[in-house]
Structures are given as structure tokens and as C-alpha cells.
Design a protein that fits this description.
- The chain is of the alpha+beta class and about 400 residues long.
- It has 3 domains: about 90 residues, Alpha Horseshoe (Serine Threonine Protein Phosphatase 5, Tetratricopeptide repeat), CATH 1.25.40.10; about 180 residues, Roll (C8orf32 fold), CATH 3.10.620; about 70 residues.
- It contains 21 helices and 9 strands.
- A 5-stranded antiparallel beta sheet has the order 8-5-4-3-9. It has a two-stranded parallel sheet with strand order 1-2.
- α2 runs antiparallel to α3, α18 runs antiparallel to α19 and α18 runs parallel beside α21.
- The longest helix has 19 residues.
- The N and C termini lie far apart (about 65 Å).
- InterPro entries: CAP/Cytokinesis_protein, Papain-like_cys_pep_sf, TPR-like_helical_dom_sf, TPR_rpt, Transglutaminase-like.
- This is Transglutaminase-like superfamily protein.
Length: about 400
């Protein structure tokens, strides 16, 4: 039996071929042969969530609820949200934190209860309170999760009606935010506890998503943190908040502790969180953008994966760069990955140029770089469908004029 994290390219090809054959039988409604083929897939890869989910739903349709529950619980164990939802909402099974393997240990909950001031006014104060009860980085992040669930709420008005993002301090003071603020809280918290982290943007499927839609702009932000010699994914927003778009009431946010979205494996996150920069798939053969965009859920296995990517070297390079250069590099990766979305590259090229122009001691080479970035941003603006991005054209022109003036006198 092959374990998911140790799959070689040859093994993956064998598994993908078996899964495609099983899907074909499933689409032909040859139920029993399809079940047999999906079982072969699981024999090859015990962590194949799509095969496990098909086995669960097909056995359930045949009336074999115990077998369905067995496969669903395996899926929950692997943090498959479909399995979790099916068990909880359709089979009315009680799901415990232990079922998710991302549960909050009772000892951690006890430490959270010992935190004296849950209404601390700054992230510095919140961090000090957490550090006073825990010296373990993983547990400290789990305590941040519990604090966020207790203290924060989603800014529904801004999500549905628009508005400007908040600074981290504003979000803490107002006790509200969206994914931008929540991911910034994690990023700044990691800096304070000296844990390497990346804040990333990317794509998730909201209720209005339709398979085949072009992904023209990122719509979510989350984090990756380095714990116990490996990178794990953290979505603090989804871990504490859910968008309820079902029923007769208008869509709204509800508080819900969902620890399967916190400290999860990057490969598992790909089913619902696609990083704009493929480096953050942490996979030498990243999934193509179409594998996510063409599927209503999970990753379409029939879409060919991308060529070899040395993500480990890319991560090392990014960690060595200044924050501005890092964001620019990530934006270049993102545009190469998805040409339908130039927005990240436009924004980060413009921001990088502005940081240079605002520095009175920028060198001649720096100013040339600023001019190149502004020219690149300006050339890509016509490709964007975002009004705020299009409005940057005049600012780019003004920046180019300023760069030329400073270059004329630069040494």
C-alpha cells in the first residue's frame, strides 16, 4: 500500500489511471464494477480522498450505511470536508475533534482557560498572554485559533457591501475582519513567536462559483507556517467562521470552530484552497489551474499536472528576499501560472516601484528597477477587469515621470 506523501511519479500515474477507469465505470452507472475499481485505487493509495468519498456515497446508495460511515470517517481523518459534511448533516453522526486529527487537545483548552485577559487590546498583549501559558509553537498557534474563535467575528457588512481592509491593530480593536485581517494576524503572530511563515493569496470556491469559470482575481488569503520541519496550512478565517448560503435567509457568516482548516497538510488544502503561486502547493508536480477551475470540488485528476518545479529552492529564495521583493517574486510566479489574472503582478509591481520612489536614497539601479516595474504594471492594466486596478494607470504614468526626473540627477 502506498502512502500519499511518499508517492513517486510512476506510482501517481498508476493511481491516476486506476482512478480514471473507476470514474468511467461510475459514469456508466456500472455500480459494482466501479466500487471494485475504487477499492483498487484505495489499495494503491490509502489516502485517496476522492476514491474514499465515492466508495462512501456508493455504498450509502446501496443501503450499506456502516461501510459508508467507515469510508467517510477515513475521509474526515484526512480532513476531507465533503466527508465531514456528509457525516454531520446527512447521517447525523457526531464528529469529534479526534476524528479530524486536527483536534484541540484538552490540555490546550485548559491552558486557554487560564489566559487572564481575553480582551487584550493589541496583538502584542495577546501574544504575551499566550506565551505565558505555552512554550510550544504548535500549541501557541492553536491557542491563537481559540482566541480568534472567542474574540473575533466576520465583517459581513464589508464582505457583502465592500469597503477598505483594516490594519491588524484596527481588526484587533474592532474584533472583526475578513481573510485579509485574519491572515495578517497569523503572519504577525508568527513573527512574534519566531516561526517562519508565508501569507499567500489564492482561489477558493464561493457559492457563486461555476466549473470552467476563468479565475480572474484572487478571492482569499491564508498562511503557511513551518512547524516540526514541515510546512502546514493555516486558514484562521475558515477555521473560525463559515458562510451560510443555504436556506431561506440571506447569506451570512456564522461562528463555527472548524479545526480541519488549521495546521493542515498543503496537499489536502488544494481541494479547496489553490495558492496563486504554485510554489505553495509544495509539490514537485503542481496541479494546473484548470484542475481546480474545472472541478466543482477537489482537483480534477484528468487534467495533466505541470512540469517539474523545484519548490524547495524557490521557498529558500523567497525567504532570503525583502518583504517587497518577496511579494513581487510571488506575483510573477502567480501570473506565469494563471494568465487570466494579471492583478497580483500589477499591484505588486506598482507597490515595489512606489517603495523605491519613496526612498530618498534609492540608487540609480533601484530607480531603473522602479521604472521597469511601473512599465510592466501599465502594460498589464488593460488585461484586468478590476476597476481599482484600472485606476492605477494615472499613478503609473506619474511614477514613470518621477522616476525619469530622479534618474536624470542620480549618480
Amino acid at each position: 500500500m502506498l502512502m500519499g506523501n511518499a508517492l513517486r511519479a510512476q506510482d501517481r500515474q498508476q493511481i491516476d489511471a486506476a482512478y480514471k477507469n473507476a470514474l468511467l465505470l461510475y459514469e456508466q452507472k456500472d455500480t459494482f464494477k466501479a466500487i471494485a475499481e475504487f477499492e483498487k485505487v484505495v489499495q494503491l493509495d490509502a489516502d485517496h480522498k476522492d476514491a474514499l468519498y465515492h466508495l462512501a456515497t456508493m455504498n450509502y446508495a446501496l443501503g450499506d450505511q456502516p461501510t459508508a460511515i467507515k469510508f467517510l470517517k477515513r475521509g474526515v481523518h484526512l480532513h476531507d470536508r465533503r466527508a465531514l459534511t456528509f457525516l454531520r448533516d446527512q447521517l447525523h453522526q457526531k464528529i469529534t475533534y479526534a476524528d479530524t486529527m486536527q483536534y484541540i487537545d484538552p490540555a490546550t483548552s485548559e491552558k486557554f482557560d487560564k489566559i487572564k485577559n481575553l480582551n487584550a487590546p493589541t496583538l502584542n498583549d495577546i501574544t504575551k498572554n499566550i506565551l505565558s501559558v505555552s512554550s510550544n509553537a504548535r500549541e501557541q498557534l492553536q491557542l491563537l485559533l481559540l482566541w480568534s474563535h472567542h474574540a473575533m467575528r466576520a465583517d459581513g457588512a464589508r464582505f457583502f457591501n465592500g469597503g477598505f481592509p483594516l490594519s491588524t491593530q484596527q481588526a484587533i480593536q474592532k474584533r472583526t475582519g475578513l481573510c485579509d485581517e485574519y491572515s495578517n494576524i497569523v503572519d504577525e503572530f508568527c513573527k512574534k513567536i519566531k516561526v517562519q511563515s508565508f501569507r499567500v493569496t489564492g482561489y477558493v470556491r464561493y457559492p457563486d462559483f461555476q466549473p470552467g469559470d476563468a479565475l480572474r482575481q484572487t478571492n482569499h488569503a491564508w498562511n503557511f507556517v513551518y512547524l516540526d520541519s514541515s510546512w502546514v496550512a493555516c486558514d484562521l478565517f475558515w477555521s473560525t467562521t463559515a458562510l451560510d448560503a443555504e436556506g431561506s435567509t440571506p447569506p451570512h457568516f456564522v461562528k463555527r470552530l472548524e479545526p480541519e482548516y488549521f495546521l493542515g497538510l498543503p496537499n489536502d488544502f488544494l481541494n479547496h484552497h489553490l495558492p496563486a503561486d504554485p510554489v505553495f502547493q509544495f509539490d514537485a508536480s503542481p496541479v494546473a489551474i484548470a484542475a481546480f477551475a474545472n472541478s466543482p470540488d477537489g482537483i480534477d485528476p484528468q487534467v495533466k499536472r505541470m512540469p517539474y518545479l523545484n519548490y524547495q529552492d524557490s521557498i529558500k529564495t523567497l525567504l532570503k528576499l525583502s518583504p517587497e521583493k518577496r511579494l513581487l517574486k510571488m506575483a510573477k510566479h502567480a501570473y506565469s501560472y494563471n494568465k487570466d489574472n494579471p492583478n497580483e503582478l500589477i499591484k505588486e509591481s506598482y507597490n515595489y516601484a512606489v517603495s523605491i520612489l519613496n526612498d530618498k536614497v534609492s540608487t540609480k539601479n533601484d530607480l531603473k528597477s522602479a521604472k521597469q516595474c511601473l512599465a510592466l504594471a501599465k502594460s498589464l492594466i488593460p488585461l484586468s477587469n478590476d476597476g481599482d486596478i484600472k485606476a492605477l494607470k494615472e499613478s503609473c504614468d506619474a511614477g514613470l515621470t518621477m522616476a525619469d526626473k530622479r534618474l536624470a540627477t542620480a549618480k
